[in-house]
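Structure first, sequence second, as always.
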């Protein structure tokens, strides 16, 4: 029986459709969302990785607000784009910082309420973003508190929707060591899909080999812990696509790639990995540029420029995704 919440497409995208605040300069007021989502459909996007921010949804303890997310889910559903819901960060009414490890019971209650509302339309959920990186989770403790949160949340979500699938929060940087720590903490039975962010700069000759090599290492860790059959997703992978004349700092892997180099990396990534054997889905980061937000080349990860004009990478992505939709095979 087909699940209307799901798609076999390996073509995902990460974008910040919930960014309608002063701190992000209202990057996505709803009219801009209404402009972006049809372009995602035009590009052949199968899945979007989208925040369901705790602070938005439960701004005061016990008071839940879903209007903003109802509109987003409705629009994505209308355009047949499936959702990977990202459940995070901490709330100001219970913590000094958004990156603090949350109270497991309070967090699990919020997560359960989100899943209860959207379980007819969202099958996949991800617990936190890059919990092994101290930008997003402080203090780091060898994944101990994250694993405790994972166990508590997984149990709660499965009670609410036994058919949902929970991804471990996308592991970045030293993701091999962090994945090993998760298994050592007993996380194996508390996530359905493994998930990493294996960024590689495309300006080196062996970029694809480096990427494939890192995926092989992830698979080796999974196999060593009896988890070889579990799917593996990449929910962030991208690089700068610098428009001619744009100036900013280098991204964390060095020289900012040009728009043409970005397009060639899109081609290599999806031609080389989106085959369903080692990696089930790849989410390109991002759909639209975010100038002056990250203040480095990361602001130019988009397939679109900030003004919604299409980069060469948009067409590289579109060609492969629409070919998948047309003939039903992985390109």
């Amino acid at each position: 029986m087909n699940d209307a919440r799901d798609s076999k497409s390996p073509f995902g995208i990460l974008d910040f459709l919930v960014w309608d605040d002063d701190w992000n300069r209202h990057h996505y007021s709803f009219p801009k969302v209404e402009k972006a989502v049809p372009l995602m459909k035009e590009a052949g996007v199968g899945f979007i990785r989208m925040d369901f921010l705790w602070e938005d949804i439960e701004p005061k303890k016990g008071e839940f607000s879903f209007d903003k997310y109802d509109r987003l889910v409705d629009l994505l559903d209308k355009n047949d784009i499936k959702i990977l819901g990202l459940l995070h960060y901490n709330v100001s009414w219970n913590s000094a910082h958004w990156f603090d490890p949350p109270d497991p019971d309070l967090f699990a209650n919020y997560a359960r309420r989100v899943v209860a509302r959207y379980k007819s339309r969202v099958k996949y959920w991800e617990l936190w973003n890059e919990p092994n990186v101290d930008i997003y989770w402080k203090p780091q403790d060898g994944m101990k508190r994250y694993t405790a949160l994972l166990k508590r949340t997984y149990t709660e979500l499965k009670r609410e929707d036994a058919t949902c699938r929970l991804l471990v929060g996308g592991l970045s940087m030293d993701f091999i060591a962090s994945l090993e720590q998760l298994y050592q903490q007993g996380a194996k039975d508390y996530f359905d899909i493994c998930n990493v962010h294996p960024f590689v700069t495309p300006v080196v000759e062996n970029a694809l080999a480096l990427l494939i090599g890192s995926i092989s290492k992830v698979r080796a860790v999974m196999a060593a812990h009896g988890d070889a059959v579990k799917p593996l997703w990449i929910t962030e992978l991208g690089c700068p696509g610098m428009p001619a004349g744009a100036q900013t700092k280098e991204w964390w892997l060095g020289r900012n790639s040009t728009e043409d180099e970005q397009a060639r990396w899109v081609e290599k990534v999806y031609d080389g990995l989106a085959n369903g054997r080692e990696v089930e889905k790849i989410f390109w980061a991002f759909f639209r540029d975010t100038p002056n937000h990250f203040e480095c080349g990361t602001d130019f990860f988009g397939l679109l420029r900030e003004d919604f004009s299409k980069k060469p990478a948009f067409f590289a992505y579109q060609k492969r995704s629409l070919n998948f939709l047309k003939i039903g095979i992985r390109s």
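Margin note: Residues 201 and 254 are 8 Å apart (CA to CA).
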